[in-house]
User: Which sequence fits this backbone?
């Protein structure tokens, strides 16, 4: 079996604390099942700035490009608030996304039954929720030109952002969404605003054509993005995969995420195009949360978002579906047993720290694997 090459970039704040729990899982999988993970570790964000004066070194960029997958913790913190803009901690993540051409951002919103009470919606609306938002990550209004503020000279200024999409960008993101749907409940809902935006008209046209040409077995529906936002809080379980552009995806994925409770629970994946020869994709997996400087170093961070990001890595980069299912099952089982980190603590539950949570999930995972 070929080695599975992982680059670990723990980053700053709680990033290294959460990553330590994934390292335990990797070591155990190698020892118990001969999973063949080979890991390298690099610096990103503030820690890279302190060491190299850059948010990621060229050597670590080269390692990221050569790895089968990158596991990323979190970056940033008050210590680096004053560093120059080009080398601020977030620049490391943006560089990785850009150079690895990670155009598809996957944000699952899964509601663990044990945490259904902590959602802002009623239990029956969210219990068992499993939605995957596929957001286009490298195009659209965040990158389109012109992007400027001009002085009109009469005491007024004008700000312009440009929403722009080419056919190939919509083809590749919708293709990714249809492929993912086939591994789930086989349904895709595409969201745009073709009633008021030309980019929405093209989006709908291209998604429809891709569906007809290559994925007629998948159920496709279309929804205006504003109605989609409404439906996500009204009846979220109607959705399987939602595919949408960069801006709407940014908003809708945060809405969907909050249906499920705490930031400390939310994983994500960013994927590139499949290599024409090997079929493998460049990929980066990271928790949605940041470096949480307010709790860093206290041993109380919730490692579940980071561990669930590793489960996504097993699923999407290594096709280790059974292992990913078991790891996600272990997270659910530990929550069912009443274990909680401080951020998700509630009455009658047992509060534990980062390392104890990681150990408990690892033990459940190993037991379920035997
Ligand atoms: P944050 O996600 O770091 O924290 C927001 C709140 O949620 C904090 O109270 C924090 O303690 C809590 N929290 C977050 N993750 C948690 C976890 N795993 N367990 C328990 N509690 C958790 O967002 P912020 O405070 O707005 O940003 C802090 C720093 O992180 C900033 O420098 C910001 O730029 C950076 N940031 C980085 C990323 C990233 O690396 N991808 C994402 C968002 C923010």
Assistant:
């Amino acid at each position: 079996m070929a080695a599975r090459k992982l680059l670990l970039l723990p980053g700053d704040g709680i990033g290294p604390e959460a990553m330590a729990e994934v390292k335990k899982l990797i070591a155990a999988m190698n020892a118990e099942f001969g999973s063949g993970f080979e890991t390298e570790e690099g610096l990103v964000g503030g820690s890279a700035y302190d060491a190299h004066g850059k948010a990621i070194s060229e050597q670590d960029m080269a390692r990221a490009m050569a790895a089968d997958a990158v596991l990323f913790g979190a970056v940033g913190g008050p210590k680096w608030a004053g560093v120059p803009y080009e080398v601020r901690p977030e620049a490391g993540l943006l560089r990785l996304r850009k150079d690895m051409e990670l155009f598809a951002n996957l944000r699952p919103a899964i509601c663990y039954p044990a945490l259904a009470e902590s959602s802002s919606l009623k239990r029956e609306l969210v219990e068992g929720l499993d939605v995957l938002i596929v957001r286009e990550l490298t195009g659209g209004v965040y990158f389109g030109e012109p992007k400027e503020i001009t002085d009109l000279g009469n005491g007024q200024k004008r700000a312009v952002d440009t929403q722009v999409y080419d056919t190939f960008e919509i083809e590749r993101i919708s293709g990714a969404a249809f492929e993912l749907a086939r591994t789930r409940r086989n349904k895709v809902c595409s969201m745009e605003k073709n009633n008021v935006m030309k980019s929405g008209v093209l989006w709908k046209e291209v998604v429809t054509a891709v569906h007809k040409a290559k994925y007629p077995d998948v159920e496709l529906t279309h929804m205006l993005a504003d109605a989609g936002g409404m439906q996500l809080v009204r009846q979220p379980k109607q959705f399987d995969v939602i595919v949408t552009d960069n801006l709407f995806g940014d908003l809708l994925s945060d809405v969907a995420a909050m249906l499920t409770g705490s930031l400390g629970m939310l994983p994500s994946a960013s994927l590139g195009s499949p290599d024409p020869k090997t079929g493998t994709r460049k990929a980066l997996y990271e928790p949605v949360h940041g470096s949480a400087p307010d709790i860093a170093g206290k041993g109380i961070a919730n490692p579940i978002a980071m561990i669930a990001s590793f489960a996504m890595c097993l699923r999407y980069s290594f096709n280790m579906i059974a292992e990913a299912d078991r790891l996600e099952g272990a997270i659910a089982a530990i929550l069912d047993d009443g274990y909680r980190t401080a951020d998700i603590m509630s009455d009658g539950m047992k509060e534990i720290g980062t390392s104890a949570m990681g150990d408990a999930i690892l033990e459940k995972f190993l037991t379920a694997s035997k």
